[in-house]
Amino acid sequence: MRIICNGYNSALTEAENIQAVEDIHRAVVAEREKITDGTSITSLQLTYKLSNGKVLMREYVLPDTSARLAQIEQVLNCDEARATRNTPELAVTLEHLTYTNIGYETESGDYLYVELTAEQALDLYENAIAPDCADGTMGRAWLTDSGTRQSTAYAVTIGYQLSQYDPATGETTYADVDYTPLTDSTRTLAWLRAHGIEPLLEGDSIKYGGDADTQSAINAYETTDSSFGR
């Protein structure tokens, strides 16, 4: 089955995790929490592959005050959900890497984008992102407790785009995944800092609604060459 909530997309096959989602699903249907025009909402999509081969999909909106969000967050942060969400559908190789950039906010309030070469992107993924995700120190889902997120997550998005062309069919398969480092994502933070990127916590960021006492943020873009970070 697959669960998608506020953009967090995870596939589940383990019986315990599927049972947890089914329990949440029953509760959501039974409670039918009221949504008004002024209600902030969270989207939830559940997709089941049935024993007869058919696919059943259901979509719901929940108020941001729903007690079910903590349960959904717990499922999204189980080992299986994190692994499927943070592992691209295509292998991260030089052949598949199409585009990688890092967006981050500086202390001045500027929001910068740095494009990586394929070699840099592979190095970052293999030696920092993948082991941090495996340790559970990056790639978690956040649906509740925004205060903890702002003091834990950095105002950084590392975006990977991958593609693979099949000459037999003439079709191209695409995959993309984004990563946000946390305070204990030690390898990824070390890589960023070694390459001149000093990220801010979301709580200190203008973009993420923090209390930074800085000028209005502006966007800038930088394309790197092989000398970046040397």
Describe the structure.
By secondary structure, the protein is an alpha+beta fold. Helices cover 30% and strands 28% of the residues. Strand 1 (2-5) and strand 2 (8-11) form a beta hairpin. The longest helix is centred in the middle third of the chain and has 18 residues, at 118-135. Residues 211-230 have low confidence and may be disordered.
Key traits:
6 helices, 30% helix, 230 residues, five-stranded mixed sheet, globular, alpha+beta, 9 strands, four-stranded antiparallel sheet
Compact overview of the structure:
By secondary structure, the protein is an alpha+beta fold. It is built from 6 helices and 9 strands.
Sheet with most strands: strand arrangement: 8-7-5-6-9
Uncertain residue segments: 211-230
Radius of gyration: 19 Å
What is the general shape? globular
Topology:
Layout: E1 2-5, E2 8-11, H1 15-31, E3 41-49, E4 55-63, H2 68-76, H3 79-86, E5 97-105, E6 111-115, H4 118-135, H5 146-152, E7 156-166, E8 171-179, H6 186-194, E9 219-223
Helix pairs in contact: 1-2, 4-6
